[in-house]
Amino acid sequence: WNQQQTLVGRSPTELNSIGKRIMAIPQQAELSMQLDLSISCSQLITLDVLSKSDPMVLVHIRDLATKKWVEVGKTEKIKDDCYPKFAVPVTIKYFFEEVQNLRFTVIDVDKMSGNNATDWDLIGKMKCSLGDIVGSTNSSYTKVLENKKHPHRQNGTITVKAMELAKGLEGWEVKLNVRGRGLDKKDLFGKSDPYLVFERPDNSGGYAPVLKTEVIKNTLDPVWNPLNCPIARLAPSSVDSEIRMMCYDWDAHGSHDFIGFASTSISQLRSKPKHVFELINPKKKEKKGSKYTNSGTLEIDYLEQKNNTFLDYILGGMEISLSIAIDFTGSNGNPTNPSSLHFHDPNQLNEYGKAIRSVGDVCAPYDRSGMFAAYGFGAQLNSTKETSHHFNLNFTPDPLCRGIDGVLLAYRDSFFNLTLSGPTYFSEVLNSANAMAASYPRGTKYQILLIITDGVINDSPKTIEALRATSTLPVSVIIVGVGSADFAAMEQLDDDNGSLGFPRDCVQFVPFREFKNGPIEVLAKKTLAEVPAQLVKWAQMNKIVPLPH
User: Fold this and answer.
1) How far is CA 410 from its chain centroid?
2) Among 341, 398, 350, which Cα is nearest to 375's?
3) pLDDT tens-digit profile of 402-422?
4) Which of 167, 214, 267, 375 could bond to 325 as cystine, CB 3.0-4.6 Å?
C-alpha cells in the first residue's frame, strides 16, 4: 500500500473503507500481462536403455537482484515420449519494460517424489528472454536443446508458446467431475486404458493442451479424479472460446490410440451443472457412415468458484503479526569491534538493524496493535550465567516492543544484559512461535517470524520437525542470513521443491549480502514475496474463508 496513512488501530470497517478507496485510485496503464507458457518438445534423445525418455521441463527465471535462477514452474512428467506435448503450462507475468531471462531445462525423469523429480538425467537446456517468445511469430518460439557435456549430441528441440490470460477471470476456478461411458475398445487383450486431454486454441491456429486426467487401466467406463483449473487457462481470450476434450487409449510404448473428441466452451458449461457429450472419431465416422453413433460419451459435472486472495483476507480483518528473533552467537564477533556483525555505528544500521527495519516497515501497517514480539537466542545471560536459546529481547516479562523503533532500541540495549555464546539453535524459537500461533482465534491473525542469523544451525533435525508443525499453523518463517558464512543448510530449509515433505511451503531464506549494496526496499520485497501465497495456502488447507468486506 503506497500510502502514508497508518492502519494501526483501525477497525475492520475503517480498513474496508480505506481498502476500497485505494483500489479506486486510477492507475497508470499496465505494461504487464499474465501469460501461460505451453511447452512441447520434438525428437528428444532416448536416454533410457529399454524405453523412450520420460521427459519433464523445469522453468527458471533469472532474478535481477541476486542474479540467481529461481524456479517459476514445471510441467508434468510424460512417460515414454520423445514428442511430448505437456498439459501443465507455466504461468508468468510479463513486464514489457524488463528483460526477463528464462531457462528451460528438459530432463529424463527416473524417480519422482510427489510432483518433484528426485532422480533424473539432463536431456538439454534452452535459454531465451520472455520477450523473445512474445515477439516471435504467433508468440511461438522453437530452439534446439543444448547440453554442455554433450556439445555435439542431437538432444531435440523445444517449443514454447505464450498465450495471454483473459482479464476479469483472475481468481476464478472450475472444478470438473468427468466420467466416460461406453468408450471404444482399443486393446486386443483387454478393454481400453483411457485418459482425457483438454485443449484450447493457440495463436498459430492449432491447439495447446492445458489439462489432463490420469490414465485408468482396462475400462470402458472410467471415472477420473476431479480436475481443477483456472478459468482463464481454459478460456484465455473469451468464455466462448472452444475447449476440445480429446480422449485417448494409453499405450506403454507412447503411441496412444485416439478414441474420440468433443467440443464445448465455458459459456456452455456455465449453462447448467451437468452435461453429456458424445465423443466423435472422424475417421471411424467416415468409415461406418450412418451406422456410426459415437465412440462413447463424457458426463461432466461443472462447478465454478472464486479463489480467495491475500487482499480478501486482509480486508476481511485478518491481522499480520510480526515476531523477530536475533542470533547472539559468538560467531558474530565481539560487538565492540567494528568488524562485528553486531557492531553499532551511530550513523547507520548494521545488517541486523537493516533487516529488522526493511521487513518491519512493510509489516507494521497490518498489525493494528503496533506491538512486535522480539526475542534473542544463543547468548549467555548475565542474570543466569547460562546460555539461552530463547529469551525476550527487552529483558522484561513481556516480549512486546512498541513499533519497529522499539525493537531496534531493545536490540541496541540488549548487549548490557548478555554475552555472545552459542551454539545456534532455532527449534526453541520456532516452538514458541508455533505455540503462539496455535492460540490465535481461528482465522483472525497470521504470524511472520523473522529470524536473523549469521551461520550454520546446530539443531537441524529438531528445526525441521518444528517447521513441519509450523507448516500446519498460521505462520511464515523468514530467515535472513547476515555476514559471509556458508548458508547451504538454510537454503535447504527453504523447501520450495517440496523435498522435506511439509504440508505447505512456509519458509523463505534470503542472504543479506546479495542486497546489502542496494535499496533497503529490495530486501523487503524479496523476503516477503512468498508470504501472500503462503497465507492463502494455509487458509485453504484449513477451509478458512475471509470475512465479508
Assistant:
1) 35
2) 398
3) 999 999 999 999 999 999 999
4) 375
pLDDT of residue 352: 94
- CB-based contact 452:482 (threshold 8 Å): yes
Q: Give residue 30's pLDDT band: very low, low, confident or very high (50, 70, 90).
A: very low
* pLDDT of 20 strictly over 80: no
What SS3 class is residue 312? Answer: helix
Within 13 Å, how many C-alpha atoms sit on residue 276's CB side? 5
Contact by Cβ (8 Å): 229, 243: no
Strand pairing partners for 125? 105, 146
Nearest to 213 by CA among 172, 258, 178: 178
What letter would DSSP give residue 467? H
Residue given cell 530449509 in the structure block: 493
d(CA 341, CA 325): 15
Say how many Å lie between the first and final Cα of the chain, rounded: 17
The arithmetic mean of pLDDT across residues 266-290, rounded, is: 94
Look at 24-28, 469-473, 534-538 and tell me which has the smallest mean pLDDT. Answer: 24-28
Q: Which of 147, 141, 146 is nearest to 128 (CA)?
A: 141
Q: 3-state SS of the chain: helix, strand, coil percent to 5? A: 25, 35, 40
Count of H helices and E strands in the chain? 13, 26
Note the pLDDT tens digit of each residue in 120-146: 999 999 999 998 898 888 889 999 999
Angle, helices 351-363/520-528, rounded to nearest 10 degrees: 60
Q: Exposed, middle or buried by CB within 10 Å (0-12, 13-18, 19+), for 260?
A: buried
- pLDDT range class, residue 446, cuts 50, 70, 90: very high
Amino acid sitting at position 209? P
Give which of 109, 102, 38 is closest to 70, Cα–Cα. 102
Task: State phi, psi for 497 to the nearest 5 degrees.
Answer: -90, 0
Burial 336-372 (b: 16+ CB within 10 A, else e): eeeebbbbbeeeebbbbbbbbbbbbebbbbbbbebbb
267: enclosing H helix or E strand:
helix 266-270
**pLDDT category of residue 495 using cuts at 50, 70 and 90:** low
